Amino acid sequence: MEVVSSTLFPNKDKASLEAFLRYCHSVALQKNNFQLVSISLQVPHIDPLLVLASIHEKNALHCYIEHPEEGKATIGAESALSATFASKDRFAKVKAFAENIIENTIAFGDLTAAFTGPHFFTAFTFFDDLESRKENSFAPATVFVPLWQASKTPDSCSVVVNIVVDKDSDIPQLVEKVWAAHKKLSAMNQDTFPLAVPEQAEVFQPEEVGGEAYFENAVRTAIIDIEKAKYSKIVLARAVDLKPKKPFNPLVSLNRLRKNFTNCYTLSFSNEQGKNFIAATPEKLLTVSDNEFTTHALAGSAPRGKTGVEDEAYGIALLNSKKDIHEHQLVVDAILQNLANINVSAEKSEQPVLLKLRNVQHIKTSISAYLINGQHILDLVSALHPTPAVGGTPVDVARNSIKEIENFDRGLYAGVIGWFDYKNNGQMLVAIRSALMEEHRARLFAGAGIVQGSDPYKEKAETDMKLQALLLNI
């Protein structure tokens, strides 16, 4: 990637922008290849969800991720460059796609702040092949460089505009497009583009996909398989369909979720067919920052108590549950082994702790490593996805059994949504506690880990608890 010094074009005016883009055009002509031009600017304040609200188009790609407690959020909208892949080597293909673009990128602006420079937003479905049922509407791998990106951290806010310049580009037209985008993004604030105030969600009558008896019967099937030693753990999901009285607005749902689940990752990924996949997930697959790798094992669940005493009792019981600790340890062991398989020596926290969410608490073990062997972030994703927390173990046997037992497409449910940049930094999230939304329909997903000792009624109750969080906020 070529980084152009701001001293070459010191003035932030249209004339300097045109001179810079004409330089990029000359590079494209010289190399006989397109150039991705990435322009980064710091701004005083920005709310990425408001940016999405202002530029949201139903049939355009977007990816939005926010963690309210951390004060971090980013949105990439519309596509400068994109691709989809459907094969077992989908992670390698996305990596090759990104590396080719980075080799043909010219970056300008302040690249020292977080979320500056070109970023790649990605979505990977749970399965690596195309599922057969019509409701699946996402490719096994989607990657795009956004036209517009807006981000915030506790320390800085930034906007990035990405455009493609090739030998046939109309430079004056690009100047007007970039200048207009810069002015619009830089001027955004809470007063200019107000979102609808979160109000109580509609009361729905959920329709269970497969019928009311489906999930408990599925759990019974899995318990028999476990007794036969076919696998030691499998994660089975439920899906319920909702039909609203008035069209869904995914942005309003996202605003509710980020306000009510501040210690979760609120996210949205849209395709080009008018479908939005949204989630409030507590689970990250991984984060890489300056070669520092972090993840966590999240498995084992209990409800929150109505009082402090009851809540503490639920938590203590969870940490002393042989069934839940066994389920949790399967996830920890698998993550450590899968990392070791790609020469990543990781360490885990000495003792698991409780992650307390608004309506549920989980057992959590933190895992970290320093990357010394040049692993790309997508190599790590390929090694870890799916963890036993959303798939099972042994992973291949469990994954095949999920296809046999479940009667709907998972699509992006329990898949991976996230981003990475040109410096191999990035974050990938596990898309659970999620919903696939269209204007007049939504499908909600929730799952539970089945191990020896699981009870079908209790597993159903656990998924009821997880679904309720979405039902009250969608």
What shape does the CA trace take?
Answer: globular
* The CATH architecture of the largest domain: 4-Layer Sandwich
What's the story with the biggest beta sheet?
Answer: 22 strands, mixed
Q: Specify the number of helices.
A: 11
Helical fraction: 25-40%
Content of β-strand: 25-35%
CATH topological fold name of the largest domain: Anthranilate synthase
Please tell me the total number of domains: 2
Quote the average pLDDT.
Answer: 91
Would you give an account of this structure?
It is a single chain. The protein contains 11 helices and 22 strands. By secondary structure, it is α+β, with helices and mostly antiparallel strands. α1 crosses α4 and α5 crosses α11. The protein has helices spanning 14-31, 48-55, 90-103, 171-186, 214-227, 250-260, 308-319, 322-340, 377-384, 395-405, 456-471; strands at 2-4, 35-43, 62-67, 72-85, 105-109, 119-124, 141-152, 157-165, 207-208, 233-242, 265-270, 276-281, 284-289, 292-303, 347-348, 353-356, 360-370, 392-393, 416-421, 426-430, 434-438, 441-451. The model has no long low-confidence stretch (mean pLDDT 91). A hairpin with a 3-residue loop joins β16 (353-356) and β17. It has a 22-stranded mixed sheet that branches. It folds into 2 domains: 2-186, no CATH class; 207-471, Anthranilate synthase.
